[in-house]
Amino acid sequence: MAVSTVERSKRSLATENETPVPPLNNGDRLTRAEFERIYAAHPEIKKAELIEGVVYVPSPARHREHGKPHFHSISWLGTYSAATPGVEGSDTATLRLDFENEPQPDALLFLPPECGGTTRVGDEGYLEGTPELILEVSASSASYDLNQKKRVYARNGVAEYIVYLAYEQRVIWYVLRDGVYEEQQADDDGVLKSRRFPGLWLLPDALLSGDLHSVLESLQHGIASPEHKTFCAALTLRREEAK
């Protein structure tokens, strides 16, 4: 349908009268609704987080410090999810935790409601609720990943929180006990094992050295363990009961 000259003029005038939405800046204090409105108005911003009502816009990501470990971490979690029907994962998805916190975790695993979890996909496509496990690759963001964000995740009941510290070359796996995170120690073989997701095993030294083959080889031992088989059977039963 052709647009009249008068209609084009009205549209042009409306555009000129629109007030531009300012971009998100580090340190802005916003409500979650304000944060989402501004974020949506600036598609050029690829990642921004709201932590305790404060905006954080990460620096550009470098390959060695972020891209490569992120890729390997996703490969590890994705392989576990593929072998564990009912467990879902996500990569850098917006997560609505509460009214002052909307992070974009580098990776996470969760159980949907039909499997006994509390995380769901909301009407607008965002994740809502508390995932069972969150992983962050920390280089420039290490300060708030280990402080503000850590407190937020603990307060919201995230059972396990993994932080890959790129510059320190260290992997910390926190387990929530009585509302407080405690660092989990590796076993005698140097393997860290999830308590919330049986069979999710990690060889941190291999992850730090970029040895993805050894990371996945260790995971396969976890997937072949009796506790993983028991977990999968329990998930299958829950999903059947939820139908």
TrEMBL record:
Coiled coil: none annotated. InterPro entries: Nuclease_put_TT1808, Restrct_endonuc-II-like, Uma2. SUPFAM superfamilies: Restriction endonuclease-like. Keywords: Endonuclease, Hydrolase, Nuclease. The keyword Nuclease applies. Residues 1-28 are annotated as: Disordered. Residues 33-202 form the Putative restriction endonuclease domain. One of its GO terms (molecular function) is endonuclease activity. It holds the Pfam family Uma2. PANTHER family: SLL1072 PROTEIN, SLR1083 PROTEIN. This is Uma2 family endonuclease. The lineage of its organism: Bacteria, Bacillati, Chloroflexota, Caldilineae, Caldilineales.
